[in-house]
Amino acid sequence: MDAAGAPSPRGLLLSDYVLSMPRPDFPIPGPPRPEIALAGRSNVGKSSLLNLLVGRKALARVSATPGKTRALNVFTWGERCYLVDIPGYGWSRAGKADRAAWRRLVVGYVRERPTLAGLLWLLDIRRDPSPDDRAFGTLLQERRLPVLPVLTKADQIGRSHRAERVAAIAQVLGCAPDEMVVTSTRTREGQEALREAVLALVD
Ligand code: GDP
Asked: Which residue among 55, 128, 152, 188 is the one 20 to 30 A from 4 at the CA level?
């Protein structure tokens, strides 16, 4: 929706669940399309952001259903690209075997998937990047993948602290503050900027 309440053209790109990839080299049937992945620590707001991006209320609920929390869940977004929901990292109750399985799946996907064109890296605007975030950042650098840092839950901090938080996170990531998109799924802040930035990754 724009400020006048009219549906935006980007919002009309249809999105649907396609399949869950249990392995990083799992094929997606049909014509090849670039894949844009979404990643971040557990609870960062990834499912909510996916819904904000595509303009659907509960699309990403599928990612939380049993058996799908450990897979790469694939969604269409129009005919331009696939959106790939990477399971969240840093889940403190995860055991050793779970962590090893996560690594095989995610590291394999990020390092080697030929159709991976870009990645939205979600970070909670209230927190400094954690050791898990930094480790994930190292993996991204190895591949030299186009990465869009997306700051989530912006409604949780006051306007006066915002620039400070954005600058602090940008410094850790080694990027400019205006290279990141600030979002809130509560207020829908950043929805259009996010869509534009994702389409720019695809082109
Ligand atoms: P995921 O585990 O990364 O997929 O995160 P979810 O999308 O399930 O969100 C985790 C929690 O954060 C839920 O309680 C959401 O309601 C909440 N959340 C997600 N996005 C926002 C946001 O923009 N603002 C606020 N205040 N809460 C959010």
From this structure: 152
Contact 185 CB / ligand 1 (< 6 Å): yes
- Ligand 1 atom 20 nearest Cα: 45
User: In this structure, are residues 195 and 49 in contact, taking their beta carbons and an 8 Å threshold?
Assistant: no
Q: How many domains does the chain have?
A: 1
The answer to whether residue 147 sits within a structural domain is yes
C-beta 45 within 6 A of ligand 1: yes
The atom of ligand 1 lying closest to the CA of 185 is: 23
Instruction: Residue 124: give the domain boundaries.
Output: 17-202
Is position 3 within any domain? no
Task: Determine the distance separating the centroid of ligand 1 and the alpha carbon of 46, expressed in angstroms.
Answer: 7
Q: Look at the alpha carbons of 121, 111, 75, 40 in this order and tell me if their dihedral is positive or negative.
A: negative
Q: Evaluate whether residue 7 is within a structural domain.
A: no
Closest CA to 71 of 104, 30, 43, 41: 104
Closest CA to 74 of 38, 105, 49: 38
Per-residue pLDDT of the chain (203 residues; tens, 9 = 90+): 444 444 455 556 788 899 999 999 999 998 889 999 999 999 999 999 999 999 988 776 766 666 566 899 999 999 889 999 999 998 766 788 888 999 999 999 999 999 999 999 999 999 999 999 999 999 999 998 999 999 999 999 999 999 999 999 999 999 999 999 999 999 999 999 999 999 999 98
Give the residue, by CA position, lying nearest to ligand 1 atom 25: 153
Q: Is 44 in the pocket of ligand 1 (CB under 6 A)?
A: yes
CATH of the domain at 63: 3.40.50.300
